[in-house]
Known about the structure:
Helix content: 55-70%
Number of strands: 0
Order of helices and strands: HHHHHHHHH
Mean pLDDT: 85
Amino acid sequence: MSDELLVVRCQLGEREAFAELVRGWHPAVERYVGRMLGGPDDDVVQEIWLAVVKGLPRLRRPDRFTPWLFTVARRAVMNRLREAYTRPEPEPIDDVRGEDEAEGVVNRETLAGALAALPAREREALLLFYLEDLPLETCAQICAVPVGTVKSRLNRARGLLRRELMRKGYEA
């Protein structure tokens, strides 16, 4: 069943429709929160679903549920990362080589650590675009910035991620 139809059913008060919506989107919300905060945070995920329950009746365009959901999630994450967003941009990561990984293969732990080292704005752009597979326009709506800004953040994030992986010993 489409998300749009589930949203309409939720707005009509069907509890099973909301449960189905949560079952479908909970993993994506958990992934987004975990990657943005550097690990799982059940409190933030619960805040998000509470905000969804409260705000769903006022959602005027059920076909825009996905960007709306990630906007709610972003707001909750931003509340947790407020100090990261207010700090000045960090200096570029130096190119110091770390220990070599087993034959240069990037494992999940290495990648997760490299992602966690990125500034919050750039990490968010990478997560939404590549890992959640959202279009640039949707990413821009979620981040409340123009599409060009998302493209800039993606470009900067790829460079920073590459340098961080090289610093950890991975050679592309």
